[in-house]
């Protein structure tokens, strides 16, 4: 480790790529694991929490880390692909130490931990040796004084009754896909998760909740104040909100529906009137709907919306007035590939696929899956007996209902880098 810096700061490690000896990336750093015994003795760093491809988090012992520099981490390549599970004697440096309120013993100043440094001890172990603390600012715009002090000069890092903020972690989550942020949230200790949820804005929290396992969704929502829970549900897609509300106690569900905006609540109630494992229970009531006079240019402008999920952007639905579900009669559906081949000034209605059949809301999940497989679809319309569009089922919604209930908890299958067997455990 001759090229490794004598001191490395934890927050700067997060997100760095991890490479094997052949130079192949095997994952990214997400946290450090330390054995904290007291506030006097420097804790030993046991290893890294690495996120490997497939969002699985594994443990990488520090004995397998051969080099750390400003932009990457190198390992021996011998990794145990078993999912990381924190032990009671272990502390996560990023997840449980950063943003904790502490006291600097030499000055009596109180501040927030914004980074922690580690370095080699004489026995070549990595230990936590420095703590970077920022005092509260004197005004709204003026940042407080910062200190970098010895580990033994700080009080409060090992006490779980001290408050822990969420600013730094929120910044990290902002750069992640919603599914990856949900995995981070799922792995956090309960009190840390609560702080992060409280600091998230409603729209981002809604995106993350949609990717959480069902029990986590319920837990997060039940710990929010009723008014905020209703606001978050409004930001969620109606089908996901309906599934979540259905898992809540009836009195809680009724209260939240009362607090939601009437239009959003109406969509959710309508979806809840169908069995969950049917086309009606899976559909979203907000596909891209156009009138008969809409042009191809109009259609492409709608599907160009960056906030529109890929599966919903794949198809537009041409209907008679009204253009909100349940609409007037569905005239047909137009695939985006077809629209891209048509003149922008032509009518979108002229590009509809006359051979595409619609689903009825009572169609079972097996019937929906067979329909998607037969016509190679990523989305399909759902109509009532009068031919009015009720919504659209997308392939991601179908998969959500076909996979086992706990599929989000299971690690995705990951092939070891270079096809090698990986079997070194945590000593």
UniProtKB/TrEMBL annotation:
Keywords: CBS domain
PROSITE patterns hit by this protein: CBS
Record's keyword annotation contains Repressor: no
Domain (CBS): residue spans on this chain: 352-410
Any one Pfam family match given in the protein's UniProt record, by short name: PRC
Signal sequence coordinates: none
The organism's place on the tree of life at top rank: Bacteria
Coiled coil residues, start to end: none
PANTHER family: MAGNESIUM TRANSPORTER MGTE
Protein name: Magnesium transporter MgtE N-terminal domain-containing protein
Species: Nocardioides aestuarii
């Amino acid at each position: 480790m001759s090229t490794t810096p004598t001191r490395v700061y934890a927050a700067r490690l997060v997100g760095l790529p991890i490479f094997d000896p052949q130079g192949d990336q095997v994952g990214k750093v997400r946290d450090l694991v330390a054995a904290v015994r007291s506030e006097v003795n420097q804790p030993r760093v046991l290893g890294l929490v690495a996120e490997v491809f497939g969002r699985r988090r594994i443990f990488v012992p520090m004995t397998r880390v051969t080099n750390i520099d400003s932009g990457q981490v190198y390992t021996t390549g011998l990794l145990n692909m078993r999912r990381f599970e924190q032990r009671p004697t272990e502390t996560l440096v990023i997840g449980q130490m950063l943003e904790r309120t502490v006291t600097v013993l030499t000055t009596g100043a109180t501040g927030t931990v914004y980074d922690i440094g580690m370095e080699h001890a004489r026995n070549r172990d990595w230990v936590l040796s420095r703590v970077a603390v920022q005092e509260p600012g004197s005004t709204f715009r003026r940042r407080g004084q910062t200190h970098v002090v010895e580990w033994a000069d700080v009080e409060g890092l090992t006490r779980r009754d001290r408050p822990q903020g969420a600013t730094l972690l929120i910044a990290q989550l902002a750069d992640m896909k919603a599914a990856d942020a949900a995995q981070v949230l799922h792995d956090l200790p309960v009190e840390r998760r609560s702080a992060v949820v409280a600091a998230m804005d409603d729209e981002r929290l809604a995106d993350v909740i949609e990717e959480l396992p069902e029990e986590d969704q319920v837990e997060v929502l039940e710990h929010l104040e009723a008014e905020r829970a209703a606001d978050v549900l409004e930001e969620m897609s109606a089908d996901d909100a309906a599934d979540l509300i259905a898992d809540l106690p009836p009195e809680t569900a009724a209260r939240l529906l009362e607090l939601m905006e009437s239009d959003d609540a109406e969509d959710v109630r309508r979806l809840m009137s169908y069995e969950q494992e049917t086309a009606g229970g899976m559909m979203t009531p907000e596909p891209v709907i156009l009138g008969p006079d809409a042009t191809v240019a109009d259609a492409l402008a709608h599907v160009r919306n960056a906030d529109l999920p890929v599966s919903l952007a794949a198809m537009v639905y041409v209907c008679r007035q009204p253009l909100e579900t349940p609409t007037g009669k569905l005239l047909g559906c137009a695939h985006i590939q077809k629209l891209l081949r048509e003149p922008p000034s032509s009518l979108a209605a002229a590009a509809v696929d006359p051979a595409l059949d619609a689903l009825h809301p009572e169609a079972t999940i097996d019937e929906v899956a067979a329909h998607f497989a037969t016509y190679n679809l990523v989305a399909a319309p759902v109509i009532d007996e009068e031919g009015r569009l009720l919504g659209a089922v997308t392939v991601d919604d179908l998969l959500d209902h076909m996979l086992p209930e706990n599929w989000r908890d299971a690690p995705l299958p990951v092939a070891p880098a270079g096809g090698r067997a990986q079997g070194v455990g945590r000593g």
